[in-house]
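Handout, page 2. Input:
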Amino acid sequence: MKHLLALLLAALLLMPLCALAQEETALAQPAESHVINLIENPDAEYAFQEGVTLLEVYFPEIFGCDACILRFGEETMLIDAATVGQAPIVMETMEKLGVDHLNIAFNTHPHDDHIMGFQSLPEDMPVDKFVIAFPEDENRQMRSTLKVIRQREIPIERVKNGSEMMLGDVRMVVMQKDFTSYTVNNRSAALMVFYGDRRLLMAADIETHAQGSLNKKPPEFGLKADILKYPHHGVAKVGWKFLGNVQPELAIVTSKLVSIKETVADSEKRGLPLVSTVPGVVRLRTDGVIWVVDRITP
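Output:
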């Protein structure tokens, strides 16, 4: 009898652990999917609302660096611009998309793989403003890029945590844990992009410390997003608690999947589809109700 009671007690003690392990195995799935992934399912049916301007998001075919083009009607924004070596890919993508004017050029943080490509912006492309999230003298990369920006007489603005930017009806809020003890990556400025009921989290290069800080003190609108631009190109798998708070239906990685095997394996375990910028331009479109994800040849 005592032996039976001991077994029952042990089973009861193990139940919470088993439940926790099961909870950490996969992300909570929404009751209704808001992401139509035409890369995985080319025959999926969808319909945008008639007469609604689409937010278009393009990730050029780059890897190990970041660049993203947002377009809403006649307004366009460039978030980061890759390395010097891969900047021509970004510029060519914009040219093929017919982008001949930038309302906003935004740099998340002054590392080579995010800021140096801005120096390759075409001379004949008007840029309304260059937006930074770090001090102008943060490092050599920042100073050299701002020298080029000033030579072109482009206005420079600085944002901080909680700052908002607008691209037509699209609202973007800066999420930045700018602690002096943090690395540049952990101080990088993430953006939550809002359009209608849909959200996209551009997570820049935030790593363990910044993710943990956001978990403890999230913005008032929370961290949940339909799609996640995976932090730091997917080089290191994202923290489980952070991923659980974001609850994305899909993530974009700016890396070759073969070079981030740990992240790929972890995402498969969590049931999180990954879409890589290799091979080919990744396009996201939303009418504020659904997202449609595909690859295009501009």
